[in-house]
Amino acid sequence: MMPSWMQAAQRPDFAPGKVEHCIHIWLGGGACHVDTWDPKRKGDPKLKKAGSYYDPIETSVPGLQVCEHLKHCAGLMEHFSLLRSVHHGAVDEHAAATNEMHTGRPVSGTIMYPSIGSAVAYERGKVDDGAPAYVVMGYPNLTRGPGFLGGKHGFVYLTSTEDGPAGLARPQAITSSRQAARDRLLGKTRQAFLKANPGDRKIRDYDAAISEAQALGSGEFMQAFDLKSEPGTLRNAYGGEFGQRCLLARRLIQRGTRFLEVSFNLNFVNGTGWDTHNAGQLKQYLIIKQLEQAMDALIRDLKQYRLLDKTLIVVSTEFGRPPEFDGGGGRGHQSQAFTVALAGGGLKNGRAVGVTDEIGKKIIERPISVPDLFATIHWAMGVNPAKNLYDGDRPVPLTDHGKPVKELFV
Amino acid sequence: MIRSLTYCLLLGCGVALTGADAYRQKVLEAKPAVYFRFNDAGQLTSESGGLKGELMGGASIKPTGPKGRYYPDFPEKNSALQLRGGGQYVRIKDPGGRSVLDFKNGDSITMEAWVNPETLGNYSYIIGKGRTLNPGMPANNQNYSLRLAALKGSAGITFLFRSANNKSDQDWHRWTSDAGFNLGGWHHVAVSYTFGKPDSLRGYIDGESVTGNWDMGGQTTAEPWVDNDEVWIGTTLGGQQASTLQGGIDEVAIHRQIISAESMAGRYRFAARRFVDEPGQAPTENVRIDLHEGVKEGWNLVATEPVTSFTEPLFAIPNVPRKYNDKGLIMDRPDVFLLRAQSRVKLPKGPLKLLLRSRTTARLKIDGKVVATISSASKQTSAHGAVSKAPVELDAVTRLLRPGMQERVVEFTSTGEEQHILLEAFVGGAGKRRPETGELSVAYSVAGKPYELLGGKSTLVLTDTNWRRYVIESGERMLALNQSERNEKGRAEAGNWASRHAIMAVENSRRIAVKVPEPLKGYPANNEIDHFINDRLAESGHQILPLVSDEAFVRRVSLDVNGVVPAPELIRDFLADAESKRRSVLIDRLLSNHLAWADHWTSYWQDVLAENPNILKPKLNNTGPFRFWIHEALLDNKPMDRFVTELVMMEGSQHYGGPAGFGVATQNDVPMAAKAQILGQAFLGKQMKCARCHDAPFHSFNQKDLFGMAAMLQRGPLKVPSSSSVPVIPGRRSRVEVTLKPGTAVPPFWAFKQQELSEPMMRDSRSQLAALITGEHAERFSQVIVNRVWKRYFGWGLVESVDDWEGAEPSHPELLQWLAHQFIASGYDLKQVARLILNSHAYQRQVDPEFIQAGKPAERLFAGPARRRMTAEQLLDSLFVVAGKNYRVEPLTLDINGRGAVTTFLNLGQPRRAWEFTSLSNERDRPALSIPKAQSVVDVLQIFGWRDARQDALTERDHEVSALQPALLANGVVGRRITQLSEDSAFTELALREIDCKALIGELYLRILGRAPTPGELGVMLDHVSAGYAHRMIKGARPVHHREQVLDVSWNNHLSEDANRIKVELERAVLAGDPPTQRLRPKWREGFEDVIYALINSPEFIFIP
Questions:
Q1: By the CB < 8 Å criterion, does B699 face chain A?
Q2: B948 touches chain A (CB under 8 A)
Q3: What residues of A are in contact with residue B920 (Cβ under 8 Å)?
Q4: pLDDT for B825-839, tens place per residue?
Q5: What is the CA angle A38-A44-A48, rounded to 5?
Q6: In chain B, whose CA is at the least distance from the CA of A111?
Q7: Residue of B nearest to A139 (CA)
Q8: Helix (H) and strand (E) counts for chain B?
Q9: Distance in angstroms (rounded) separating the CA atoms of residues A137 and A154
Q10: Which listed residue, A144, A226, A384, B226, has the most CB atoms within 10 A of its CB?
Q11: Is the Cβ of A273 closer than 8 Å to some Cβ of chain B?
């Protein structure tokens, strides 16, 4: 960590991207790069032989391979950029690494850094008034928060597409006529209080927020959650709950959401989710398949709506996993080399950037730091990664000297 | 000598020396070079050789030494050296030259001592020469040392010295024993060694030889380092807490010869005793519970004296009291202790079933006969376990067994006479398992009827509702018990502070009194505060605002003092008092609600002191949960200088809520720099955030100043790590200056001297720092505190911002000074300052709606308070108070079955008030780790400005208004739980009262908004609920309580598919809120709920009048 804010980092000397939205797919637990985007020679947990767990396959980009369970994505590889040399030095522990991959920095004792979602929401705001700027589909936690930017730049979250966002969706038990009756009664109490306190700006502001909340709860935004209004074939194409989250992401983007964090945390599929220690490894292919089914549908769907070039998809995780196997046939944690996949966003896609060694253990070419990754996202969205945010009067750069991955821009 | 003869026969020993003086004689026989017995604080002289020792940093001699009845070689009354934390030790000066304290190659040494550690750090010093960090002494100059080492769950011994080469870590030579003793009771430890002869090392624990290894630097024939540094007993490295043996040390001796194994064998004599059941001592009216420390889990028990005793009405023990040290601070109990609960009870005559529940090893004895046992808890802690099957249903009613609990059902035939019931259960477990009793209980069932908890006089059917209520009541009993326990233990400490304050009051009276302005006509005043305020108002041609109405006042002051809206009874009592004095009577009434006062202020200090626990694997700049110490300090209304001192000393428990938790900052490479910064802004108004990495560009401090203060906390030099710096680019002018290079070691020093210190630097730099803040800087410290209180009650400070005073002008400098002097004169009594401010006319006036922007001091006239919205905690607590409900969320832990170590998993319990919530720590983003019901409360708290994580200190929260705030209140789970008329809602009880509909609406308004409805409001609401009012009740319907499901999802199985599925289902279930009552017709109930909805969602509810 080098809070080197006083030496103004350089604005990149090449043109920024034109991305309007970002879908940040989060594979919590630490997705194994050598079993997904960075296939290597095959290993064997029984023989304690390091390597991939699955066979590699060719993709639509000659020479670029991925693992066999990503075959739909393989056919769309011209839309992908695989950053295979991402790395960080956070302690190999989920919370600390998750924090690093959301804020772009290790924790500091003096300041709480904003998450990438909050930073983007802060910089670019919402696209349209009808929807919040930053939506999380996953569990609320500190690493996803606004840090020093303040609650206004936080997220709206939901943990299930069926129930909608926590607190915004009208409870199912309350019919619309009952809600109308409630709002009528509330109208009386609101009116009386405003009348008793003329000229009190704080009260007026809060009262206005109530009106805004009512509009948000009944308007265009809430219709985004009505996934049933989409054709059945499309819903099926997206697949299970994770796919439905991706579909919802597309619908929210259409209503003006700027940044979405879509979590793949369906741990009831294999127990461990992406944290494939021990027996978690056995059913890992099931979650890879769910991931890629949804990605396939999302890319095609965004393309259909001409949104793919305006939407950057980031498939991120807190760290990768080592090519070696643990005693239970699964894998431990590895933060010294792993892959973050990008898709869409009008970037120069169809490539891999960075190279790891023959088993995916070490980076041998073009390391990409977490600040570089964050700079790439910001620059793709047209924001100078060297600019300062302010915590009170203290300037804090958007990224710590991150340099966008140039190959993706020129 | 008859007495010693008896012991001799008992122990079957031969001709060995016995009796109260025996141990001393054994040691003196060997003609020790040094022998400290710690029997008289005034006379710390070695029994042989005559060297003098000196008690440092509050180390004390206490009558806690090995007692004759257990250790027959000692007298029954025996004192020992007692150390409770860093900075405390005994110093022995080296007479210089080649003294008896110096050992070189060829010299033989034996060190021996008795120890009774209360907790165990990695290495705790018993005695050592050198390595003191004394000025002028080289680092690492350890000639020899005997220490305790934390082995797995036990205390081993270790011998450490430095060879004369003194260059690299290879020059350390450390021998560590393979085995150790379990904490609890006194133990004898010793090592002997001839320098230069590596094979000569021998270690002894309790008289027996122990094996060990040279596990650092290997063995050596090299010369040891020798110099004239001091010998310290009890700590090293400047007295740092981590090296201090917290607990008792006695009979410390150094010999200049090898003491033989045979002699060593005679050093430890212990008269093991068994517990004797004494039915006659057991009460009949309730259950007496004794806690015994110094035990191993298992039935080969050696009796010890109870460390504490308390009573519960029933054999149901959900809590045990906290342990306190002699400063009244929370401390840790040993990993394992024994609980013995007994009573004489008349069970119904004839056959019955007994139900025993315990987390780990337990047994139930009736009239001396074991009737049921439970074995040791599972040790499986990997996250890959399986979800267990649903618990066995004993019948349709009895509460189901909880995860982490075990149960036994046994048949028993009772005599029908009074019988002696004795429950013995172990609590905690090796490896720092949390000392939780869970649902430890004994119940019985006759003829298939539901189980009833057994008790002295009464019984209680073991239903969910009864158990929950019992747990809450037991919690209240613990609160009172803990308070009396810590007041008892800390009596002398409290006395010290009282005398200090008496001296300060005299000094204060010599200060030049601040002149209070004359009263002004047309400007009403209640006390001196108003004269200062009115003076400025008049001067700037402003009128004052009128007093706020009585009903608005009671709501305002209740929120400000007790943190919640006033209960209807409080309002009625207030209005019944004589008009002339009702406001001041109310203020006193509210201030004397100590618990509510503590609840309301705790969250304030959590923010200001950056209390930041994480309940799972703390890695995010986390502290310990010192919230519990904050709460207790407020409950006891501790003087604020004592509060600061305890914080700075960082003593007590780290994981269970003591101020030691403040000293932690996980993954932070300079925790003490972070703490220095927090203390600076909290108590001196010095904002040193920037100084962490460079000289502050907008302040007058340098990085060195912060690191000097941090080094005082460190009790030694502190290196500036490269992460706490910024690079300097040659040839470029920068706004910030870096005057400290990374790697520079900064010694302890105080940069903010107001005058040359009249006294030399104390030995302990932490005590020094506390004294500087509260003594040397008393004026500033007092002003900062009174300004904090002022800001809380008026919305603006006399000085802004409250935690950065540099360049800030007070709006009313004389008032600030006057208030600060009142504060000092009161003995730093926070409540006294509050009482003064709350009684002022200024505080009691109407809100000044214009008083929103007041950046400049001149704009802060305080014609009335500024408009304030409830804090997140006030809002949540008030919502649950008006609905008469408990939070009833899950316990705040991810290790519900208590298998993990407290270092990995905290359990912050079931919140009673909002301040007790915390980050739910699901950075892993896993369904199985979600805590859905608590999350629903945390969501609301957070959206209203509460912080789940407090990585940095903060006073003023985010006051942004957003649509999500009213939205979440209206649609979220919390809103639903408050609005919906569930069986446990006070609104349900209200609706069931036999009153007319008008009165019902009136009561509802009083409860929620603290006032009567206007005629217009009454009409509208009546329209909505009068239809069907007469027939609202369902005749004969009784409250329905469904038995709670049991979900076994804990860390140990959270990586299973089932665990994740269960939690996803639970999240869905939580959304429904609490099920509605069956006693009211749904149609009418819903209408009434709509009215409640309109009141709690009204802006009127959340603004302070």
A1: no
A2: yes
A3: 141
A4: 999 999 999 999 999
A5: 110
A6: B952
A7: B925
A8: 28, 33
A9: 13
A10: A144
A11: yes
Torsion of Cα atoms, A270 then A274 then A279 then A283, to 10°? 50
CB contact under 8 A, B726 and A206: no
Tell me the residues of chain A between 128 and 157 that have a Cβ less than 8 Å away from chain B. 132, 138-143, 145, 150-152, 154, 156
3-state secondary structure of B804: coil
Share of chain A above pLDDT 90, in %: 82
| B122/A400 Cα distance (integer angstroms) | 37
Task: Name residues 375-414 of chain B within 8 A of A (Cβ).
Answer: 384
> Which amino acid does the sequence have at B440?
L
Burial of B1015 (0-12, 13-18, 19+ CB in 10 A): exposed
> What does pTM read for this prediction?
0.87
CA distance B511 to chain A (A): 38
Residues 6+ apart with CB under 8 A from B891: B907, B908, B909, B910
- The pLDDT, as a whole number, for residue A382 is 96
Q: What span, in angstroms and rounded, lies between the C-alpha atoms of A97 and A91?
A: 7
Q: Where are the beta strands (DSSP E) in B751-900?
A: 868-869
Give the model confidence (pLDDT) of A89-119 as tens digits: 987 789 999 999 999 998 877 788 999 999 9
Beta bridge partners of B162: B172
Q: Per residue in B1039-1058, is it b (16+ CB within 10 Å) or e — as a string?
A: eeeeeeeebbbbbbbbbbbb
| Total residue length of chain B | 1105
Distance from CA of B1050 to the nearest CA of A (A): 13
Residue B730, exposed/middle/buried by CB under 10 A (0-12, 13-18, 19+)? exposed
Given this model, what pLDDT does residue A393 score?
Answer: 79
Q: CA-CA distance, B703 to B689, in Å (whole number)?
A: 10
Tell me how far apart the alpha carbons of residues A351 and B973 are, in angstroms, rounded to a whole number: 47
Using an 8 Å Cβ cutoff, are B886 and B913 in contact? no
Residue B923 at interface with chain A, using a CB cutoff of 8 Å: yes
Q: Which of A328, A291, A381 has its CA nearest to residue A21?
A: A381
Measured CA to CA in angstroms, residue B663 lies from A64, B659, B693, B738, B902 at distances of: 52, 7, 20, 27, 17
* Mean pLDDT to the nearest integer, B801-827: 94
3 state SS of B385: coil
